[in-house]
Amino acid sequence: MFHFKEPEQNLVIRSNHSISYKSDEEENDPTSGFSLEQIRKWMKDKLHLGKREECDSDQRNPVIFSELSLDGMVEYIKEGKAKNIITMAGAGISTSAGIPDFRSPSSGIYANLGKFNLPNPMAIFDIRYFEENPKPFFVLAKELYPKSFNPTPCHYFIKLLHDKGVLLRHYTQNIDMLERVAGLPQNKLVEAHGSFHTGTCLKCKKEYSQLWMKDQIFTDKIPTCESCGGVVKPNIIFFGENLPGRFFNCVREDFKKCDLLIIMGTSLQVQPFASLVERVSDDCPRVLINRDKAGGGLATLSSMFGLGGATLQYDKKGNFRDVFIQGDTDDKSQEIVEKLEWKEQFQQISQIKYDP
Question: What local confidence, expressed as pLDDT, does residue 329 receive?
């Protein structure tokens, strides 16, 4: 489960998308909770989510792209209308680097966990299960850990947006650090689910480097703190842990400035990350680049609790700002680069790898 951490209370989203809302005094009581109406009020006050109506073709909506297509987005960027682009990415942008995604029916991580004899597939990323039995996670971590650190063309496209001065921030669900290897500065990166970049002892909180963690993982050891003997866990976010404070701080400031949201390689099924598509203004264009459609009919945070379902509208009547570009994220990234006439600089930066 994930926690929305606020100074006075916690909103807790569990791995099955159920929700509870707890005060600090009730934090250790798993049975405590608040009413749906209180949750709605909290979300409106704290997350600034209000009701938004589905597009209506009879309404006078602004013309944002000349056409709802990849070419329309390219023209929008060329005309200098995109000065604060936010990119959101999931596991799909890293599969060509040899890192499996989570939900593919045959090759995804969740589909291949039978050998661990887990109570359920997501238990391997549950902090309570990890504290009882960390071994399955570290066996899997060896498979998940990037072995060659080769960013994909999509990663370099994101870096190029930064180099061109139009990237406000990149939000990623991935823990593989490939954005760092592509050269994206840390101040432009929000690793919503953490990463292998560092590790922390669960007992004494001593921090360990990425190189130390890698050595432990690849020698088939359970990383153990050199000071107190506690288990050292990579700083990735498990179900049951708070998301990084940086995630919430950046979200509050970034999305109100966004003038183009590009979403790549994600199923938009994991909260609260999926709900970010609703945080941009009503006239901000949103572009999904993915092999399969996502976000068009899925319940996001606000729609789940009656706050208006501002899901992606690309298949809806009256849509005026949302675009679905079907295809491989690497191929489409390179196509965008070519149409923007950025190919030479793209080729230059894609030859460089940075130390994560």
Answer: 97
- Catalytically annotated residue among 155, 162, 170, 193: 193
pLDDT tens-digit map of 113-142: 666 777 777 788 899 999 998 988 888 888
- Please state, in angstroms and rounded to a whole number, the distance separating the CA atoms of residues 269 and 15: 11
For the chain, state the CA radius of gyration: 21
What's the pLDDT score for residue 38?
58
N-to-C CA span, the chain: 28
Decide: 11 and 45 in contact? Cβ < 8 Å: no
Question: Could you please report the per-residue DSSP string of 211-264?
Answer: HHHHHHHHTT---B-TTT-PBEEEEEPPBTEEPPHHHHHHHHHHTTT-SEEEEE
Please state whether the peptide bond connecting residue 272 to the residue before it is cis, i.e. omega within 30 degrees of 0: yes
**Long-range contacts made by residues 240-245, C-beta under 8 angstroms, separation at least 24?**
240/1, 240/126, 240/127, 240/128, 241/2, 241/3, 241/127, 242/2, 242/3, 242/5, 243/2, 243/3, 243/4, 243/5, 243/192, 243/193, 243/272, 244/190, 244/191, 244/192, 244/194, 245/5
What is the rounded CA–CA span in Å between residue 182 and residue 172?
Answer: 14
Residue 338 has pLDDT above 60, yes or no: yes
Mean pLDDT in residue range 313-324: 92
What pLDDT score does 258 carry? Answer: 97
Would residue 48 show up in a list of annotated catalytic residues for this protein? Answer: no
* Beta strands 167-172; 189-191: pairing state: parallel
